[in-house]
Each structure stands twice: as C-alpha cells, then as structure tokens.
Request: fold
Amino acid sequence: MISARFFDVDRIEIVVKDNGKGILPVNLGRIFDPFFTTRLGQGGSGLGLNIVYNLIKDVLGGDISVDSVVGKGTTFTILLPRVAKIVDEHS
Reply:
C-alpha cells in the first residue's frame, strides 16, 4: 500500500507499507547503513536503502522512519518538505 497526505502546512507524508515477512529487530536499526545486507551472495549490495535514506535526508531535506513486525510486514514513513531545500552549489 502506498498513501500520501499533507502532514502539515509545510510537509507531505508518504507511507509505503507491505505485508511481507518483516525485518528482524536485530537488523532494523541497521537497514539504512551502507553495505548492510541479509542477502550477501544473493545479489543484494546493501546500498538500496542507504541511497534512499541519503536522498530523502540530505538532498530533499526530509525524514524517513521504519516500523516492522516479523511475519506481518514493514512500513516506511517518509516526511518531505512541500518545497525541497535549496542546495548552495558554491559550498
């Protein structure tokens, strides 16, 4: 499920939720770390969620959080500013 709504006057909330197998609690705090993968040798590089995290936080000036229940699924909640922050190209 994907949903979006105005969170407040300045931010938009996007929620991405699945009903998959979930993420183990021991891994939950590490999923945004670069090169963290539970699929080593199976095609997972461990960069996907790190790239998403950096785009949302650093490029767009937003925030992302995750909640997961093993056997029930995972929910990512993204808060983005209605207007992306301006990056100073001279710094």
Remarks:
- The chain has a mean pLDDT of 91.
- The first strand starts at residue 2 and ends at 6.
- The longest helix spans residues 48-59.
